[in-house]
Specification:
Elements: H1 3-14, E1 32-37, E2 40-45, H2 46-50, E3 55-59, H3 66-77, H4 79-84, E4 88-93, H5 97-106, E5 114-116, H6 119-124, E6 128-131, E7 134-139, E8 142-146, E9 152-157, H7 164-179
Parallel strand pairs: 3-4, 4-5
Antiparallel strand pairs: 1-2, 1-5, 3-8, 6-7, 8-9
């Protein structure tokens, strides 16, 4: 997909806020997919990841676009804080594996994995980006905090990337406090 088309799609959807159908308390759909961590292939299985604590799943539209790059860098800069709070961050998009390998190194700075969101996963999490009355295979920008029991503890859906890290980190810290 060329940059001009992507820019047009984002501009069309920017007028309406993104909304995710999965609500707090809903069971997060399990999935298995491939991705990259520090440029190396990485297998992601949500159920397995949750054994180690809560997971922040953040869906983003397209690697190497301005908002997605800034968001990945922000998650990278906050990765130590997420780990301290006991959570793992995983980025998801419909990008192909070679793109994810590069993005994991250049923009995620080897701090967390990014993985391929299949059309089924995008549907299951209700994060397909609407464009002029139809859905694309790209995801919108939605962040979920999934507790270790597989339940949605927090959701933030907004095409503006700037509050996703702040809000998900606050939700993870709150979840940690409630579990004590």
């Amino acid at each position: 997909m060329n940059k001009q088309l992507i820019g047009l799609m984002i501009a069309i959807t920017a007028a309406a806020p993104a909304e995710a159908a999965l609500r707090v308390g809903a069971r997060a759909p399990d999935f298995v997919t491939t991705g990259a961590l520090a440029g190396k292939p990485f297998r992601v299985h949500l159920k397995r990841e949750l054994r180690n604590g809560p997971v922040v799943l953040y869906f983003y539209p397209k690697a190497f676009t301005k908002g997605c790059t800034l968001e990945a860098r922000a998650f990278s800069e906050a990765s130590a804080e997420f780990r301290k709070a006991g959570a793992r961050v995983i980025g998801l998009s419909a990008d192909d594996l070679p793109t994810l390998k590069r993005f994991s190194v250049e923009e995620c700075r080897n701090a967390f994995p990014v993985a391929r969101a299949s059309a089924a996963t995008i549907r299951a999490y209700d994060v397909a980006m609407p464009v002029v009355g139809k859905l694309t295979t790209m995801s919108n920008r939605t962040s979920y905090v999934i507790d270790r029991n597989g339940r949605v503890a927090f959701v933030h859906s907004d095409l503006d990337w700037s509050k996703h890290v702040e809000k998900t980190l606050a939700a993870v810290k709150d979840l940690k406090k409630r579990q004590k």
